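Would you mind giving me a polypeptide sequence along with per-residue structure tokens?
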Amino acid sequence: MSAIEATINLPKLGLLDDSTTKDLIYKAQAGDIAAKDKLVQHNLRLVYSIALRLKRPGIELEDLFQVGCLGLMKAIDDFDLSYNVRFSTYAVPVIAGEIKRLIREDGLIKVSRSTKRLGQLLMSTRERLSAELSREPTVHELAAAVGVSPEEAVEALEASLPVSSLHERIGSPDGGLEVEDMIAAGSDPESAVVDSVSLKNALSQLSERERRILLMRYLEEKTQAEVAKVIGVSQVQISRIEKRILAALKDSIER
């Protein structure tokens, strides 16, 4: 358990099975406080996982967690038992929505001057490298150019963007995915639930080649030209395939 987890005091409880969860929701909605408390306790790690994924520089994780807990209770109160859907599938976007609202409306992001300066340096370096390389530099190339770690570079670049950057689209403006949809989940069961809600079904519908292209572009940070060389097609074809993949993922997630 991390120091943050200890501070938040997460119970060592896993998610309940679907039948037990719905039985407790029925009782909680009828006014059973003990049933609602049990539901909350068994879903706190899910809330923590979502808060951790949405954590931004300058925001206290505990604040996001507390708001996420309010979202969890809202999900318990509003869940429609007549629908044939798992509670976690319904609760994840409700919890995430409450957290995002806090980030947008309360303006919690506070960035240090040194981080702001680094962000500005990285932005100007990106423009210079883009001109020199005739392509967008990778995070690793940017970090090496200014003498910081890739992690520091990512944090500074993110901190220099407005909160709305959470909704910036990867790919075409009308056919890409939002940045937050590309955030990888952790390895604990609750993170796996979050991941499955957002991307699992969508990714399973892609072909092996499409998944390989997505992996190279967004995890290995390869350029379209580099991917084209590996796949054995032109850069223009990779651009079209990538646009189609992102559009398909977006449609599948929103469906």
